Amino acid sequence: MLDFETKIFDKETLTIGDRTESIVRGGRHLFDRLPAAFEGIHQLGVIGWGPQGSAQAQNLRDSLGSAVRRVTVGLRTDSASWHAAIDAGFTPEDGTLGEMYDVIRGSDMVVLLISDGAMAESYQDIFAALQPGTTLGLSHGFLLGHLELMGDRFPDDIDVVAVCPKGMGASVRALYLQGKEVNGAGINASFAVHQNVTGRAVERVLGWSVALGAPYTFQTTLRSEYLSDLSGERGILAGGLHGIVESLYRHFGDLGLSDEDAFRHSAESLTGPISRVISQEGMIGVYKRLSAAGQRRFAEGYSASYPLGFELIHEIYDEIQSGNELRSVVLANRRLARFPLGKIDQAGMWRVGEQVRAERVAEQIPLDPFTAGVFIGVMMAQIDALIEYGHPYSEIANESVIEAVDSLNPYMHARGIAYLVDNCSITARIGARKWAPRFDYALTQRAYPALGDVDPALIADFEQHVIHDVLRVCAELRPSVDIFVE
Questions:
Q1: What family does this belong to (predicted)?
Q2: What is the rounded CA–CA span in Å between residue 333 and residue 337?
Q3: Distance between CA 214 and CA 206 in Å, rounded?
Q4: Cβ neighbours of residue 458 closer than 8 Å, sequence gap 6 or more
């Protein structure tokens, strides 16, 4: 059973469903505890300037102040991001921007936020640059999985910890900035302590999460994190969602809706009113809002999508757990120089979406019960699969629901689902492209042709599912502010 002790932060034990879990709440009122949490850390190096690297470097710099001597960004000197880091206020002249390996060698704590593929290719050089007693921080457990595939391990003389924000980097930064006005605004995070050589790992990792602005931080392990995270990216958070909306768009077109209305009833409905209600009232809140006829239509969609979603999530999880999915990410990264990832927003559906968003009247977007049923059916399938595999409730709720409706879907609503899939991490982009067609095919070829039947037992399980209580507890910890995306 997971547990931790902290003398600097306040650990709370929550009853979540039929379990108890310990968490730490965040907030700017805790920033005065950061010097104690980061005692012994003079330079904190953030390596990488991708979505997470840029967000975390700025949040840590803004939060830590004099708690560390400096937060320094480490990049390759020929990196295309070098000038972007300078524009954000990190400069070679004041020692806050430097060559990647120089920064690693000179830092007491290294937050490694380069792409998974880059980590897989360069981890040996990175490990060689780490000084004994350094705290190595990750925001994804992918490297652990890769090391195990290679028969390798982390150096024995360093701490290894992780803080994994449950949202994209842009959300981590945007909600942190909103937190200046509303204390506690931010993105939830999980944390893990894989190695604690210094005896300071727990306090440092909790301080890191608080400094990022996480409203609440829950415990996991590196292995549990990458298994659930990669499953979520390929499932309901990106790949599954992309396949769902493409199948729904064509389905509504087949029913006679115009292209514009088909988009409103599929993508707009899902990223708009459906996600907003789930965020505030949970999945059961969507169901309860529907009329009797709407609940029947919801049940049709749910009964069709849940079994196929459950099957696909299990396949995804098996591919990740076996190492196949990790290998495919590493191999895909090696091909990128020759075969760059193209954009996925060129199909007619996404062109229609640009027009619909430009003419959007928020109050006129329908909460379509069938779309809700299909989407929530796959979401519940992912939840049940992760429960079956033994993940903590907080991790399941965040990876399957909260990250979607409080971080990713608002960005998709503002800028398009295809836009987000094209602007997230390389690992997520690769996974979404691989698995979205599988969800699309399963729904189009197997689910929709069999519509009409409702599985009463499946709907009864949904109505009384423990996840509704889990989300209720999580909602009580939720900041009062919604993310703002222009």
A1: Belongs to the ketol-acid reductoisomerase family.
A2: 8
A3: 10
A4: 302, 303, 306
Say if residue 181 carries a ligand binding annotation: no
Q: Which of 42, 83, 140, 391 is catalytic?
A: 140
pTM for the model stands at: 0.95
Q: Of the candidates 277, 289, 260, 457, which has an alpha carbon nearest to the alpha carbon of residue 360?
A: 260
Domain boundary, last residue among 216, 240, 275: 216
416: helix, coil or strand?
Answer: coil
- Per residue in 358-399, pLDDT tens? 999 999 999 999 999 999 999 999 999 999 999 999 999 999
* Alpha-carbon distances, residue 68 vs 96, 208, 262, 317, 451 (angstroms): 12, 12, 53, 40, 60
In the predicted model, residues of the chain with pLDDT beneath 70 are: 1, 484, 486
Summarize pLDDT for 403-446 with one digit per residue, the tens: 999 989 998 999 999 888 888 889 999 999 999 999 999 999 99
Residue 140 a catalytic site member: yes
| CB-CB contact of 18 with 465 (8 Å) | no
- The total number of structural domains in the chain stands at 2
Check residue 77 and give its pLDDT: 86
Q: How many CB atoms lie within 10 A of CB 161?
A: 26
Q: Indicate if 287 and 380 belong to the same structural domain.
A: yes
Whether residue 221 lies inside any domain: the answer is no
CATH of the domain at 38: 3.40.50.720
State the residue range of the domain holding 78.
11-216
CATH for 447? 1.10.1040.10
